[in-house]
Write a structure and sequence with these properties.
Blueprint lengths: L6 E6 L10 E7 L4 H10 L3 H15 L2
Antiparallel strand pairs: 1-2
């Protein structure tokens, strides 16, 4: 789906955002990975409906 080679899901290590706050990479994988898709759906504005719509658009663009 789409042009993303890799998707990186991140989280702050500390609950408070600080100037020196560290970011932890939770997951790194292809958008084709179902677990990454779940994270994208959770984070992305529009949720699952928007994700499905974008997938349909990308399928139209595929050669």
């Amino acid at each position: 789906m789409g042009d993303s080679e890799q998707v990186v899901v991140c989280a702050y290590e500390d609950k408070e955002v600080k100037e020196d706050g560290r970011i932890k990479f939770e997951k790194i994988a292809s958008i084709d990975n179902p677990r990454i898709q779940e994270d994208v759906i959770h984070i992305m504005e529009g949720g699952k409906e928007a994700f499905v719509y974008r997938n349909e658009i990308y399928q139209i663009w595929k050669p």
